[in-house]
């Protein structure tokens, strides 16, 4: 079963442009993955504000306006909401990928070389998953897709 096919489109104002089109099932799985991962990641952002045990397990949040903690949490939460809705999903996913790469290299990497040693596995995985969403798009169940269909 071929789930990914490369097609060539020709428009009057452009030359031929290769574009990847996913099967309906693949696109639905991408959407479901995007929704679940962004939902879970939103809780990660809320921890920086003291919710769900906070950053210390005791309900503590990062000080208001502090860099990078408070701003990172704000970007994580805003990006998770955009990605959950599938609105501006590619830029949001790219931003979140960068936020998590920054977190990995500034917080986790100084404690050890490998993610298993420095507790940076979630940051590394989130960074790569968000990069994947930035490349493949939000899937069929997203506000971006709805807006694109209406045009």
What's the SSE blueprint?
Elements: E1 4-9, E2 17-22, H1 24-47, H2 69-85, H3 89-108, H4 115-118, H5 121-136, H6 143-150
Antiparallel strand pairs: 1-2
How does this structure look, described?
- The chain is mostly helical and 151 residues long.
- The chain contains 6 helices and 2 strands.
- The protein has helices at 24-47, 69-85, 89-108, 115-118, 121-136, 143-150; strands spanning 4-9, 17-22.
- It has a two-stranded antiparallel sheet.
- Helix 1 (24-47) runs antiparallel to helix 2 (69-85), helix 2 (69-85) packs antiparallel against helix 3 and helix 3 runs antiparallel to helix 5.
- The longest helix has 24 residues, at 24-47.
- It is globular.
Instruction: Sketch the major β-sheet.
Output: 2 strands, antiparallel
Give helix and strand order, one letter per element, not per position: EEHHHHHH
| Strand numbers in spatial order across the main sheet | 1-2
What's the overall geometry?
Answer: globular
| Helix content estimate | 55-70%
> Helix segment count?
6
* Radius of gyration, taken over Cα atoms and rounded to an integer in Å: 18 Å
What is the typical, i.e. mean, pLDDT?
85
Structural class: mainly alpha
Strand proportion, as a percent range, falls in 5-15%
Number of strands: 2
Spatial gap, N to C terminus:
31 Å
Oligomer: single chain
Low-confidence stretches: none
